[in-house]
Specification:
The complex is a heterodimer of chains A (313) and B (329).
Chain A (H helix, E strand, L loop, with lengths): L1 H28 L4 H6 L5 H10 L6 H13 L13 H36 L4 H15 L2 H15 L15 H34 L3 H8 L4 H38 L5 H10 L3 H29 L6
Chain B lengths: L1 E14 L2 E14 L3 E5 L6 H8 L8 E9 L2 E2 L5 H7 L4 E4 L3 H4 L6 H12 L4 H14 L5 H4 L9 H13 L5 E5 L7 H18 L2 E6 L2 H7 L2 E6 L2 E7 H6 L4 H8 L43 H5 L5 E4 L2 E3 L12
Parallel strand pairs in B: 3-8, 3-9, 6-7, 7-8
Antiparallel strand pairs in B: 1-2, 1-4, 4-5, 9-10, 10-12, 11-12
The chains are: A mainly alpha (313), B alpha/beta (329).
Family (chain A): Belongs to the binding-protein-dependent transport system permease family.
Subcellular location (chain A): Cell membrane
Keywords (chain A): Cell membrane, Membrane, Transmembrane, Transmembrane helix, Transport
Amino acid sequence: MLSYILRRMVATLPVMAIVALFVFSLLYIAPGDPAVVIAGDQASPEDVERIRQSLGLDRPFLIQFGSWVWRILHGDLGTSIFTNLPVSTMIGQRLGPTLSLMIVTLLLTIVVAVPLGVVAAWKAGSFIDRAIMGFAVFGFSLPVFVVGYMLAYIFALELEWLPVQGYTPMTEGLWPWLENLILPAIALGCVYIALVARITRAAMLEVLQQDYIRTAKAKGLGQGGILFIHALKNAAVPIVTVIGIGIALLIGGAVVTESVFAIPGLGRLTIDAILRRDYPVIQGIVLLFSFVYVLVNLMIDITYTLVDPRIRY
Amino acid sequence: MALLEVENLQTHFRTPSGINRAVDGVSFHVNEGETLAIVGESGCGKSVTSMSLMRLIPEPPGRIAGSIRFAGKDLLKLSDREMRAIRGNDISMIFQEPMTSLNPVLTVGRQIRETLMIHQGLDKQAAEAHAIEMLTLVGIPEPKRRVREFPHQLSGGMRQRVMIAIALACSPKLLIADEPTTALDVTIQAQILKLMLDLKRRVGAAIILITHDLGVVAEIAERVMVMYAGRKVEEAPVAELFRSPRHPYTQGLLGAVPKLGSSLAGTTTRLAEIPGQVPDLRKPITGCVFAGRCALATDLCRQYAPGLEEKGPRHVAACHYAAKGAVAA
């Protein structure tokens, strides 16, 4: 098992290298000259040239790439063109809110979507099933920003139950932290909940046909034990897979959600960086997201072995 | 005294093409400690009968009517909760497919423990100890290691032993075994049957054995009930039935059993087969259910369904023409 994890870690290296190459090429693929952008509207051609040299943008591609990778391996993601702060510092400052949002959304999704899917499968064909699946279609079809503004309008502006926007770090208390994240998490989680509930239902429907479910009934087990222990554990592999894939959805959705709810997270940083053509920051963020995604995939594979003893690496 | 008394059991399924009368008016009883075999070909309703006893038929589309009196209680009148307290505790079941009847993601130990913890109120340690005891009892070597293993680490025979351990863990009064040996190798079949009989004596359980294997019936049953097209067509003590089967269908079944070594002795004859197919249970049947396949059928059979009549000592059959008490050997 441990050797498997190590092997997988090593195997992520080429993946990360390709991602890095791609991320770095962004600078060349994207239209516009960063040196011109940084220099501003009033700069003379000499100013632009000076900036280009100071950033090393005039050197050959491979050399630029090599020294970039070298610096990243030493933990240096570069310096923001716009703020002149180290990219790692900027990401560090914004990591907390985004991580909080993603974790709360993930937990909310699992807690809501899995039971919904289980109940839908158990009551397949009934009114409850159709209501849940109808709700799932609804969740799929509404864009994050629509749900976000609707929630903010109803629960923050009209009912005044929760704050409209903003973010409070957890160090200032659990509730102030959570209070600010509830609406964004629901908005961001809608699509995700719909997706996971549907997959849970499909996986459970198949499992509930199996002989061992009949055995469990014949043993006198209650409905809850049959559904949530005997059946759900067997249905877990596809569910875990979709939850993992959904994390990619979350990363994309977080950018929009953070804008709607004015959360000072990585999503906002990404948008700002793109608007300013702040390439070192864009590269740093994309690299970070890719790394998180590779890590999540590894975690999914490890989770398989926990839920299904027949899977061994 | 009768432990189980089934009267006029009717299990019907609603299907898009009409109501399927899978079991249609079957009555029988099982005494304490007795072994009753229910035989018949595929689709005759024997498995549905056993599932109905446990109320494991999904309702809807199924519907169970009649009465199933077990130890004085009508199981069909119990609440779901009361029924759950009986399943796996007073009545337990062994299924045909040991490969798929155990949950692949839970340890063998957990699957045995569960019934003990639900029904006997044992805590985890006590249940674990009892589970190991049960595994020893069903002849699984190294039970302490096996309790922590998963079903895929066991062979088919081992898994059926585990199923038996689960079924007998709470010392049930009635064990329903639905083709328990059909999926196993012949050599393992005999071991499993012997094990079931040994344990039945130990626990004092009655057995309902569902099978189409007449060899198994002769070996372990005391009484036999023959089912055809969802109805009981004959019932007799096992020796009586094999000696003088009265119903043409039972005679056909017995005639369809190959005799080992007959080709060596040069006495090979073509195996008797029963021509035709089981009638469509979604259509109402007038007359005898077997009339369509019976060589002896007359207009009487096609118009009037025969009732179950006494044909010998504790021997009933539903046939207009089966002779009454003809053989008295």
